[in-house]
């Protein structure tokens, strides 16, 4: 149930965002949760690390579900996402920041690539 104006704003932002913007929002969320997971591991707050790394995994599952396999790159992205999930599970299980940091770098690179690609799309197609 939505109780605060901020939650209403967030819901409205998601409901009115273009598909490109939604993907960027998913990357932003995954990046945020991986960073928080890394911080929690470093601070030895194990429960918080677990919660944040699982949230990042859930977002990567959503990114995988959003893939359109009529495009050849979708298979490659699916493999990358699968690898990132494996590394996040490894980071969470071993409470090791190295695999999570690797995933963070991949997410940052993929977000940047997505931003560049979405800038190549004609303005008339961005709202579709």
Q: How do the helices and strands line up, and which of them pair or pack?
A:
Blueprint: H1 5-16, H2 19-42, H3 46-65, H4 73-94, H5 97-120, H6 123-126
Helix pairs in contact: 2-3, 2-5, 3-4, 4-5
What can you see in these coordinates?
This protein has helices at 5-16, 19-42, 46-65, 73-94, 97-120, 123-126. The protein is an all-alpha fold and 128 residues long. The chain has a single domain, classed as Four Helix Bundle (Hemerythrin (Met), subunit A) (Up-down Bundle). The longest helix has 24 residues, at 19-42. The two termini are 29 Å apart. This is Flagellar secretion chaperone FliS. Pfam families: FliS. Its main location: cytoplasm.
Query: What is the straight-line distance between the termini?
Result: 29 Å
Runs in which pLDDT lies below 50 for 5 or more consecutive residues are: none
In the CATH classification, which architecture applies? Answer: Up-down Bundle
- Under CATH, the topology can be stated as Four Helix Bundle (Hemerythrin (Met), subunit A)
Radius of gyration (CA) equals 16 Å
The fourth-level CATH homologous superfamily is Flagellar protein FliS
Overall pLDDT level: 89
GO cellular component, one term: cytosol
Protein name: Flagellar secretion chaperone FliS
Main location: cytoplasm
Organism: Paenibacillus albus
């Amino acid at each position: 149930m939505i109780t605060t104006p901020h939650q209403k704003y967030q819901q409205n932002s998601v409901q009115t965002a273009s598909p490109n913007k939604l993907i960027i929002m998913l990357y932003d969320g995954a990046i945020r949760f991986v960073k928080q997971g890394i911080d929690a591991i470093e601070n030895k707050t194990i429960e918080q690390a677990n919660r944040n790394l699982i949230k990042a995994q859930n977002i990567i599952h959503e990114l995988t579900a959003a893939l359109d396999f009529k495009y050849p790159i979708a298979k490659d992205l699916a493999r990358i996402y699968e690898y990132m999930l494996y590394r996040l599970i490894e980071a969470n299980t071993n409470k090791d920041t190295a695999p999570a940091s690797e995933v963070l770098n991949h997410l940052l690179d993929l977000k940047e690539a997505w931003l560049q690609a979405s800038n190549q799309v004609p303005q008339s197609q961005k709202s579709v």
